[in-house]
Design brief:
Helix content is 41%, strand content 25%. The chain has 347 residues and is α/β, with parallel strands linked by helices. Bound molecules: adenosine-5'-triphosphate and magnesium ion.
Amino acid sequence: MKNAIETQNLTKVYNNNFTAVNSLDLEIPEKTIFGMLGPNGAGKTTTIKMLTCLIQPTSGHATVGGYDVTKNPDEVRNLLGMVPQQVSLYKDLTVMENSQLCADYYGIPADERDSRIEDLMELVDIKYARDKRVGQLSGGQKQKASLVASLVHGPEILFLDEPTIGLDPTTKRTLWDLIRELNDDGRTIILCSHDMHEVDMLCDNVGIINTGNLVAYDTPQGLKDTLLEENKRELTETLSQIHAENDEERLAELENISLRKMSFLLQEFDESVVSSIEKNEKVKDIEIARNGRVNLKIDAFDDSVVHEVLNDVMSSGGKIKSIFTEEPSLEDVFIKATAEVDEDARA
Ligand SMILES: Nc1ncnc2c1ncn2[C@@H]1O[C@H](COP(=O)(O)OP(=O)(O)OP(=O)(O)O)[C@@H](O)[C@H]1O
Ligand SMILES: [Mg+2]
């Protein structure tokens, strides 16, 4: 697969000598949705600004759609659409006029222009405000107007810098659907977001940036699996250390940590189901909540326990209404990957 974006040693040092992006190497395969995560000030917007030719890299290389951002900025601009973190439309022009300006910049034929804009307005539900000046719009409405303007020339590569911030839940979903549709049409999407659910759900790959560097890159599931493996490894090491030291008290404490939570609710509470899972040695600490939910703990190192518990429940005639197991979330991955901060690099 070809890469839509490639960077090598991409670096941005701002005029005040601050290094916002530090020798970044990144590859984003074409036709995928890439999620860019990172704490405030990590360098996400700076990276996007370099890739969209809004600012010049200090050193290093970057290509977008095969074109070099420094040598061929016009070709790069033609390929991409950008919804910036700070909406950059003209406040005194209307939603329609702003989009027309964009369309004219990209040379969209006059007979196609307005109908294209109207279709996009309908898609993101902003047509009702087409003749309002952007300065008079609400935050979410501005965001939608910005989206229309950025999509009007049908860009191959779309950069979205926190596009759903401040959008109401319905509009958020509309935008998620739109992102998926654009991707189904073969477009590459680069999405910066602090919404872990959004990134987990939409993105093929996720990169976590911390103080201007890429600290993790994988599929959302891959990142979570790695974290689980790391946690297991750390725990095993600590456990064997404590075993060697023969510290009874800490051992009891730690063995409890090596368990993870699971719980289920039956359509009808049934004591015989509970006694059937009690027999499983890998199940610990069974506790029945007042609403009948059965909470228990299982061995975090044994992937077959969940399956065994389900089998026990079903073979004793239990009908499960809902079930929950504790898994690492993308948020856990984010927190772990960005926990080590070099305070000097941040200031
Ligand atoms: N024009 C500028 N001049 C000097 N420093 C800047 C400039 N723009 C950004 N920075 C600094 O560069 C660093 C990275 O900023 P950037 O906007 O790329 O972060 P971000 O990852 O997008 O953060 P957020 O999640 O808050 O949007 C920050 O420490 C910021 O203070
Ligand atoms: Mg930003």
